[in-house]
């Protein structure tokens, strides 16, 4: 018996289904690899950014605390006393210039800000006084803010404690990436 040759050319339904299944599987695999690489890249960029912000914060704080003439903020010796928690801001007397100015680092939202201020009495605004000065009537000195600039962002928390050395615990967070840093700073003039 002779087989008759069919004139049909092309794929059968079964062959077409197998080809579509293989194609969709490969496309899904490529898409998942692409999404994974994008997530990895974003995570790496986030880690790089908050590490850079951490470095900037520590450099600025270290420079200012080392040069400070005095620490105006009362800091606890350590973080173990819940009755005396470590503050999230610090104010120091500026040691970079001869004028009586104060530098304050504080958190606003997720930004660490650096404020430079002078204190005076309204009766004579030309004479600068210490931060804790009082006039003859017991009134505190007035504050004149010279500048208030952002140092870095993505601040989750920052605390200061110790008394030369001063300890700084810093935590930054961007998306799901968290970076914690602890540093010790010795003041030269404290």
Distance between the termini: 109 Å
* Weakly predicted, low-confidence segments: none
Q: For the report, how would you describe the main beta sheet?
A: 6 strands, antiparallel
Structural class: alpha+beta
Mean pLDDT: 89
The helix tally amounts to: 1
Q: H/E series, N to C? A: HEEEEEEEEE
Compute the number of strand runs: 9
Strand content is 25-35%
Describe the structure.
The protein is an alpha+beta fold and 190 residues long. The chain has one domain (48-185). It has one helix at residues 13-67; strands spanning 70-71, 90-93, 102-108, 111-121, 124-128, 142-152, 155-161, 166-174, 177-185. The strands form two sheets. Strands 1, 2, 3, 4, 5 and 6 form a six-stranded antiparallel β-sheet that branches. A three-stranded antiparallel β-sheet has the order 7-8-9, covered by helices on one side. The radius of gyration is 31 Å and the shape is rod-shaped. The mean pLDDT is 89.
Structural features:
190 residues; alpha+beta; 6-stranded antiparallel beta sheet; 3-stranded antiparallel beta sheet; 1 helix; 29% helix
């Amino acid at each position: 018996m002779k087989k008759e040759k069919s004139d049909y050319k092309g794929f059968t339904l079964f062959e077409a289904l197998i080809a579509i299944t293989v194609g969709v599987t490969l496309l899904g695999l490529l898409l998942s690899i692409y999404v994974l690489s994008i997530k990895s890249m974003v995570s790496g960029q986030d880690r790089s950014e908050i590490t850079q912000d951490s470095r900037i914060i520590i450099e600025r704080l270290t420079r200012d605390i080392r040069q400070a003439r005095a620490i105006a903020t009362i800091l606890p010796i350590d973080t173990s006393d819940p009755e005396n928690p470590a503050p999230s801001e610090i104010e120091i007397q500026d040691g970079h210039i001869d004028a009586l100015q104060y530098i304050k680092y504080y958190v606003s939202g997720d930004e660490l800000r650096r404020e430079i201020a002078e204190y005076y009495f309204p009766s004579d605004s030309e004479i600068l006084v210490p931060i804790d000065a009082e006039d003859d009537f017991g009134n505190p000195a007035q504050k004149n803010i010279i500048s208030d600039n952002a140092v870095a962002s993505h601040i989750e928390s920052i605390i200061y404690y110790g008394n030369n050395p001063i300890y700084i615990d810093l935590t930054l967070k961007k998306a799901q990436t968290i970076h914690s840093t602890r540093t010790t700073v010795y003041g030269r003039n404290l």
